[in-house]
Specification:
The protein is an all-alpha fold. 67% of the residues lie in helices and 3% in strands. The longest helix is centred in the first third of the chain and has 21 residues, at 11-31.
Length: 425
């Protein structure tokens, strides 16, 4: 496959997609802590235990990069579809198969696991905490499927207004934070799940159309992003951590706030500045073959990487802290992190082997669904995944809408034609 890849393909995009997800995985595995105390089994967060590690989030928070890469890829995909005369419904159904289909087994796995735990008498709150931890990756996909569905509209804005479309969306994101901090309208902040991430997605269009080339211009952009990020977190009302951290007075992620946009500008400038030498390196068969291999499993790795961690912590909880005696943040704890990572890689491998088939199965021919059905399906997927990422699987009774959160994305997957089919391939 590596040798048959056309040289004109931008291999750097595939490399960044795989690398960014691997950074997320390692960051989650490093930051989640659990240990046995005199008071009992305690879950913790490295950013709260050692606040100085919050600077690491400026490296490990790479979700903005993934949205930018998504903009690059989605613009290519939609323009290719229009050249071929394919309809929006055909294109969207195909994209949802690839995005939503691999999620279905994960949701079913944790729905069944939660039900079994409940039958055997486990407390509802414990089930909620455990499933919320395992399903954290779904918050990204809750937003991303919506961003993908809006690609024709946002790409149309880019084609008409160019960089002005990025400035306009960024201005809306700024206005939202002004409403939050200056006028105390906290509810307005949730709209930045759309405005801020759509702004980053637009940066991918600019990249695709080579509006930022060379080295000097991207480095200048990176400098602007870094200065803005330093000012916001040191002089402004924002927290230092760019992921959710315990005891933060302000969360930069829930909902997303302007430091994430500054980080996106900083990271994108740096990565655009070094793309030429990296692309030359990726022309070699071995690095490009490794990139292909990683991209064939990367969605499975991303979706399932917190499942073995959650199960290992559950074993520690049920066994009275067996294997979790080290104090998080201690010198011995840090010295054993490489072994911890290797152990989690080994624990994740069976899940990847079993469930990767849902990622690599050949796409089915998209059904002739109406646009209305697909949009409703995307809405159900987004709403359900958001609930699951925020609160896990709830078993609180018929009057609480969160109790139906698991059903929403499953219904949405059916509406968009993304229920996976097992087949030999």
């Amino acid at each position: 496959m590596a040798q048959q890849t056309p040289l004109e393909r931008n291999r750097y995009i595939d490399f960044l997609r795989a690398a960014s997800i691997l950074v997320v995985v390692m960051g989650h595995w490093l930051m989640a802590t659990a240990h046995q105390t005199d008071e009992g089994f305690a879950l913790g967060h490295l950013l709260g235990i050692q606040p100085t590690t919050q600077w690491l989030t400026w490296i490990f928070q790479v979700m903005p990069l993934f949205f930018m890469v998504g903009g690059f890829s989605n613009s290519i995909s939609w323009r290719s579809a229009t050249r071929k005369g394919l309809s929006y419904s055909h294109w969207l159904s195909n994209r949802m198969q690839r995005l939503v289909g691999p999620m279905v087994p994960l949701m079913l796995f944790w729905g069944v696991t939660a039900g079994i735990a409940f039958i055997f008498g486990e407390a509802v709150t414990v089930i909620q905490i455990g499933t919320q931890m395992a399903l954290i990756p779904l918050w990204f996909l809750a937003v991303y499927v919506l961003v993908v569905a809006l690609t024709p509209a946002t790409l149309g804005l880019w084609d008409r207004y160019g960089l002005g479309s990025i400035v306009a969306m960024a201005a809306l994101a700024v206005a939202v934070d002004v409403l939050v901090f200056q006028f105390g309208i906290r509810a307005a902040g949730w709209s930045n799940y759309a405005f801020l991430w759509l702004t980053v997605h637009q940066l991918g269009y600019a990249w695709r159309d080579e509006r930022l080339t060379g080295t000097a211009a991207p480095l200048g952009v990176a400098g602007v992003g870094l200065v803005a990020l330093l000012w916001m977190t040191q002089m402004g009302p924002y927290s230092l951590s760019l992921v959710g951290a315990p005891n933060d007075s302000v969360s930069n992620t829930t909902p997303p706030k302007l430091p994430l946009l500054a980080l996106a500008i900083f990271h994108s400038g740096l990565l655009l500045a070094v793309q030429r030498p990296v692309r030359r390196w990726l022309e070699g068969d071995r690095p490009w073959a490794a990139t292909i291999i990683m991209n064939r499993v990367i969605m499975t790795v991303f979706l399932w990487h917190l499942t073995p961690l959650t199960l290992l912590i559950a074993v520690g909880y049920w066994s009275g802290g067996m294997g979790f005696s080290l104090i998080p943040g201690s010198s011995l704890w840090w010295s054993l992190r490489p072994l911890w990572m290797l152990g989690l890689i080994a624990a994740l491998t069976p899940f990847v082997v079993i469930f990767n088939r849902f990622e690599t199965a050949p796409p089915r021919k998209p059904a002739s669904y109406s646009v209305l059905r697909l949009i409703v399906g995307v809405g159900f997927v987004t709403m359900g995944l958001a609930y699951l990422a925020l609160d896990g699987v709830h078993l609180l009774g018929i009057t609480d809408i969160r109790s139906y959160a698991l059903a929403f994305p499953l219904l949405g997957a059916w509406l968009v034609g993304a229920w996976p089919q097992l087949r030999r391939h």
